[in-house]
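Why do we care about 3D structure at all? Because function follows from shape, and shape follows, mostly, from sequence. That is the central idea of this module. The next example makes it concrete: a single protein chain, its amino acid sequence, and then its structure expressed as tokens.
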Amino acid sequence: MAHSIELLLDSRSDGIIRAAWQALAAAGLPSQVNVTSATNRPHITLLAAERISPDVDEVLRELAPRLPCECVVGAPVIFGGHSLTLAGLIVPSAELLALHAEVYRLTVPFVTGEPFSHCVPGHWTAHVTVARRLSREQIGAALTAASGLTTDLASRIVGLRRWDSDQRIDHILVG
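And the structure:
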């Protein structure tokens, strides 16, 4: 399992993304709405690793003055593999890239092993997951069903959390 540090969106943006989740499920497609955890919510992963010590929490709480900040959930993006993931691409403002780099720098000393390579500054693709485990045959229908995410969604990042996959709990650090 993976631990992660994640950003949380304002309630309006959260609701719009959840509506896309619902639309996918109503169309009989895989959707994040099917994740039944009480902590399941739209988020932007900043850093993921095998394990992140809870000792990082106090350090990351010092970033509270940097939130809220603006962001845009942009065009749909598809990540490959043996199955596909549909997500909303986060348009990376200078402010968001700087926040990502700072969270990465502050968190790395508390990581067991190495952070996952797709989270390293300069290699990070900021996104909000809409659906996982889509087949190639389903992707067109998924894009149609999630059409509410085909225009830019002006959003605010209002929170920061640490996800502990071992205990399946989130720790709200800011927000």
